[in-house]
Specification:
Structural class: mainly alpha
Shape: elongated
Number of strands: 4
Strand content: 5-15%
Distance between the termini: 68 Å
Largest sheet: 2 strands, antiparallel
Number of helices: 17
Oligomer: single chain
Mean pLDDT: 84
Strand order of the largest sheet: 1-2
């Protein structure tokens, strides 16, 4: 009897496990999975910077606030912890910019204190304060999520905050915000992070034209239109989004067309200058070889600078205008060369150089090995020729595939 029962139970279990999962249950499972966001795309260095920066900023803010306010209570408010996450972990976010934290926190405190005075310290009053603060932050362009907590605290913070009234707006709210912001500016810029975050849309030629890379494909107007149609708040600056999309396009192009490396097209017989060479000799080299730049190398062939035709022309013009005739005052290459040299590596794909040549104003990039020895140079002409040739080969492959299909393989 027991064996038969067990057998029937096993058959029911097998039938249930083989039965199709209801679509409604699948939808519920998918919905529950959406509660967990995807992993944050940040490397270990950025994670460390964010954690260390928040610790640094909060310690500085707490100590200076305590020293400034003394017996004033509260002298340090909890929403600063949330602000620190934004300012140090995601400093490029529109919600983390200086006006966002200063305008958002001060505005929220003003609204909260006003609601507390008019309607008393109640849950309804606190909720209304947060809602009104959010509504005002949108048109004033100072949306800052921790400011919601500031508005809430202004109403429900207890007798000490009620007694302070509008003084609470100045200290601790404004003081805490200023100190945390100053710490973020110092910390982020020390690590070469752009903060305050500003879009670089400048044209190297200082004309009204958009940058070359923006003249084909999608434009900023297309991106703005798409964001407007999206309608929801997107926590990323439009210039960052544009840059990410352009990089995605470049990765897609590289994947489709294959990689041509710098070593494949660079000029190997590189004309060089020495740091102690006179400007007149450098100019003669540029004219003789019909080139626009000379890598400057030491006796070990290590790159220590670069000098361009423009550098030489400006220096010689200034010397002529000053009527300098004393040979002791004549300039050498080391006096006018650029020491912070942007270079490429031999295995670097040429597609990664497109932005530097098109938008950043470069006309030539020295190619150096791991020991900083100059082994070649890539110019705009080289890049154009390589991309043109790659496009021809891609078109030829497509035509070959079409003819093969027409002729039955």
């Amino acid at each position: 009897m027991e064996a038969a029962t067990i057998e029937r139970f096993a058959s029911y279990t097998a039938a249930f496990s083989s039965a199709p999962f209801p679509d409604s249950m699948k939808n519920i499972v998918l919905w529950l999975k959406s509660f967990v966001p995807p992993a944050i795309n940040a490397n270990r260095r950025e994670r460390f910077y964010g954690s260390a920066g928040a610790c640094f900023g909060l310690i500085v803010t707490a100590l200076l606030s305590k020293g400034s306010l003394g017996v004033v209570d509260p002298w340090f408010i909890a929403p600063m912890g949330a602000s620190a996450v934004l300012l140090f972990v995601v400093p490029s976010s529109p919600l983390a910019q200086p006006w966002s934290i200063m305008g958002g926190n001060i505005l929220a405190a003003l609204v909260g204190v006003t609601c507390a005075k008019l309607f008393g310290a109640s849950a309804i009053s606190a909720s209304a304060a947060v809602a009104l603060a959010i509504a005002l932050m949108f048109p004033l362009r100072c949306l800052h999520p921790p400011s919601g907590a500031v508005a809430l605290m202004s109403v429900l913070g207890g007798p000490a905050i009620v007694e302070m009234g509008y003084r609470f707006v100045l200290w601790p709210v404004a003081l805490n915000s200023v100190l945390l912001l100053a710490s973020a500016v110092l910390f982020n810029n020390a690590l070469r992070r752009r903060y305050p975050h500003r879009a670089d849309t400048s044209n190297q030629h200082k004309t009204a034209d958009v940058r070359p890379s923006e003249r084909l494909g999608f434009t900023r107007a297309d991106l703005d239109a798409a964001l407007k149609e999206h309608s929801e708040v997107v926590d990323i600056a439009s210039d960052d989004l544009e840059e990410i999309l352009q990089q995605a396009e470049m990765h897609a192009y590289r994947r489709r067309s294959g990689d041509i490396r710098c070593v494949d097209l660079m000029s190997r017989d590189v004309v060089r200058a020495r740091p102690d060479m006179s400007l007149d000799a450098a100019l003669m080299l540029l004219i003789t070889h019909n080139i626009r730049a000379l890598p400057v190398t030491n006796t070990a062939n290590e790159i220590i600078g670069i000098i361009t035709l423009r550098d030489v022309a400006i220096a010689l013009s200034a010397r002529h205008e000053a009527s300098v005739t004393d040979p002791a005052l004549s300039q050498e290459v080391c006096d006018v060369m650029t020491s912070d040299v942007v270079s490429a590596s031999p295995e670097q794909p040429i597609t990664s150089l497109v932005q530097q040549f098109s938008d950043d104003g470069f006309h030539h990039l020295p190619v150096v090995d791991a020991n900083r020895h100059v082994i070649g140079i890539v110019t705009q002409s080289d890049l154009i020729a390589a991309l043109y040739r790659s496009r021809l080969e891609e078109s030829g492959q497509q035509r070959g595939a079409v003819f093969k299909a027409i002729n039955g393989g």
